[in-house]
Amino acid sequence: MKKYTEENRPQNQKNIIEGICVNPALRNDFNNTKNSDRPDQETADWWGRAFILSQEYKQSDDSYPEYVKRITGHGSELGFELQEKTDWELKQKENMENFLSDYPTGKAYLVKVLDGGAWDRSSLKAQLPSLDEAINLAKLINKQNRVVT
Predict the structure, then answer these.
(1) pLDDT tens digits, one per residue of 11-69
(2) How far apart are CA 109 and CA 53, in angstroms?
(3) Nearest to 10 by CA among 37, 36, 44, 39
(4) By CB neighbour count within 10 A (0-12 exposed, 13-18 middle, 19+ buried), where does 11 fall?
(5) Is 1 contained in some domain?
(6) How distant, in Å, are the alpha carbons of 36, 64, 66, 68, 77 from that of 82?
């Protein structure tokens, strides 16, 4: 497990908006650690505290050859069928259009909280189209959880 450092603490984040940490510098395996194994200070700092991660559209494979490699490697074992290149390209275009329809700025804002909703990572509370909406929800969650920001 990576060490929890001063850089990871909420009060030391570089981007805090209205008391909410946006894209915080979390410990590298923050979302891959059993809650019972977390450093005490990390649990004290982050338990119940909402934070926001911004996410831009990213297709699962950067190219058709990468897609073919992935599907022929492990996907076939899971029952996935290989798409023709034109079908794959259409699906990628459709996925991007759907994302941009839901998130017109090109970014989704994920409101997350370390709250025990998952045994090894933070819980996703919402995925919103604007930073303002995400901040408002995060502030409400923090208020409900009696988190002082």
Answers:
(1) 999 999 999 999 999 999 999 999 999 999 999 999 999 999 999 999 888 899 999 98
(2) 6
(3) 44
(4) exposed
(5) no
(6) 41, 11, 12, 7, 12
41 and 110 assigned to the same domain: yes
Joined tokens for residue 120: 């090894």
Q: Which H or E run includes 41?
A: helix 40-46
Structural domain including 79 reads: 64-102
* Residue the block writes with tokens 């004290």: 44
Q: Is 83 part of any domain?
A: yes
Question: How far is the C-alpha of 109 from the C-alpha of 104, rounded, in Å?
Answer: 12
User: What size, in residues, is the chain?
Assistant: 149
Site of tokens 């989704």: 108
